[in-house]
Amino acid sequence: MLLQIKGIISTINLLDIADIVIVAVVLYKLYFMIKDSRAVALLKGLIVLLLATLVSKWLGLNVVNWLLQKSMTVVLVALPVVFQPELRRALEHLGRGRFFQGSSLLNAEEKETLFAEIARTVAVLSKNKIGALIVLERDTGLNDYIETGIKVDGLITSEFLTNVFIPNTPLHDGAVIIRGNRMQAAGCLLPLTEDRSLSKELGTRHRAAIGITEQTDAVVIVVSEETGIISVARGGRLIRYIDCDKLVEHLRPLFAAKPSSLSEFFSWRPPNAR
Ligand SMILES: Nc1ncnc2c1ncn2[C@@H]1O[C@H](COP(=O)(O)OP(=O)(O)OP(=O)(O)O)[C@@H](O)[C@H]1O
Question: Transmembrane segments in this chain: where (predicted)?
């Protein structure tokens, strides 16, 4: 027995170890990607289906086994369709490494100015219960959504941004999209989330904020017209009841200069704050 183990160990070379490490890291990342997501429920369903298939084969239930095998095929074919947004985000994340990415649009000082202007705007809007939807572009281009609105090219200042959301003005309906420190468009239409587990009190403004962050890596700030509550959406999750003074603290890490693509890949976790 000991000799056998020694024999196996002596056949393992560096490439085998690298092979095992890569598979382990990929499985570990995969686990964190699907943890807390709807993929977990689906994975459980698949495991049940797999077990049922094995048991039916073991018991000799030929027709049941045949049916289960066919349904496994159908489920596997349907997976890319059902998880299109998740797959898209994962692939975009891979392609978003430093190697592929242009340099950040803003330097540290410009970012701080932008965040301060946004925080001042949000404070005014929240206090006066003026609804707002502010989308901050990150690495995923938002041109498709910019096209749905009215193009506006202007440096973000608190006065300018506040003005856009004043009720009954032409641009107040829909979302503002910001790239770098410039507004690209206002009155933009965003995709609504289809997440049925969301609280009924969240209307289309909040659902649009979550929707676009499911499909892109954008960060969205929402001010509720009804309550003045400030929320931040990212990665398909909504963090509510954000203190206006703390908004910058929420934004800063999301726009921090990135480490190399490799270390970013290994350190990535799906956002899970709600
Ligand atoms: N798909 C969308 N894309 C962009 N903006 C949208 C979208 N759907 C709704 N909105 C904005 O949200 C407004 C309606 O908000 P609604 O009251 O339905 O949402 P809510 O989440 O309850 O927000 P609030 O708390 O501000 O009332 C619209 O007037 C529009 O400005």
Answer: 12-32, 39-60
Q: Is 189 in the pocket of ligand 1 (CB under 6 A)?
A: yes
Confidence of residue 93 (pLDDT cuts 50, 70, 90): low
* Residue 95, ligand 1, Cβ within 6 A: no
**Is residue 203 within 6 Å of ligand 1 at its C-beta?**
yes
Alpha-carbon distance of 145 to 127, in angstroms, equals 28
As a whole number, the mean pLDDT across the chain is 84
Please state the atom number of ligand 1 nearest to the C-alpha of residue 189: 3
The answer on 128 and 63 residing in a single domain is no
d(CA 151, CA 119): 23
Determine if ligand 1 sits within 6 Å of the CB of residue 185. Answer: no
Please tell me whether residues 118 and 246 are part of one structural domain.
yes
Q: Has the ipTM of the complex gone over 0.85?
A: yes
Query: How many independent structural domains does the chain possess?
Result: 2
Residues 130-175: pLDDT tens digits?
A: 999 999 999 888 888 998 999 999 999 999 999 999 999 999 999 9
Atom of ligand 1 nearest to the CA of 227: 25
Residues 117 and 222 both lie in one domain: yes
What percentage of the chain reaches a pLDDT higher than 70? 85
Q: How far is the CA of 192 from the centre of ligand 1 (A)?
A: 10
Percent of residues, the chain, with pLDDT higher than 90: 50
Asked if 231 and 240 touch (Cβ cutoff 8 Å), the reply is yes
Q: Is 58 domain-assigned?
A: yes
Asked if residue 218 has its Cβ within 6 Å of ligand 1, the reply is no
* pLDDT recorded at residue 259: 55
